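[job 4471] stage=fold_predict status=RUNNING
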Amino acid sequence: MSDEVVNELITKYRFSQAAIDICLRAKFKCEYCDHDILELFEDFRFSANDHLLPQSKYEKLIPAESNHVLACHACNMLKSRWDPNVNPDKSLLVALGATSLTFEERSELINRTTKYLLGVRREKKTEFEQYRRLLRQLGPDAESRATP
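[job 4471] inference complete, writing structure tokens
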């Protein structure tokens, strides 16, 4: 990585070194769905430095780089405060007081989140298809039927 490029990103475009490191680690792709964050301006502009484990529950992990994930806008919004740390038997993969994640823990949590988001996307797409069908039934003159 060129020092000049990093310096320009930091000084001219106000990137932080941590943000650059997170983007590089993720290879500029959403770590949940593999979407290329640099594909379109909107993809980049609305991408997020997501906290893999929610800040509200894992305060000691807030500064830990291992808890930061590059996420596209859709994945970040759909995940919201969902916690991938809870096992089916209600035990935790990562202790509540942890200050960092191991590579294995991080990988497992990302895999859990990816599976969760696939399910959420399926549900939301089905719902979208239903209300899109209804909205299209209103037709192009729907505005004239709107309540004043």
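[job 4471] summary: The radius of gyration is 19 Å.
[job 4471] exit 0
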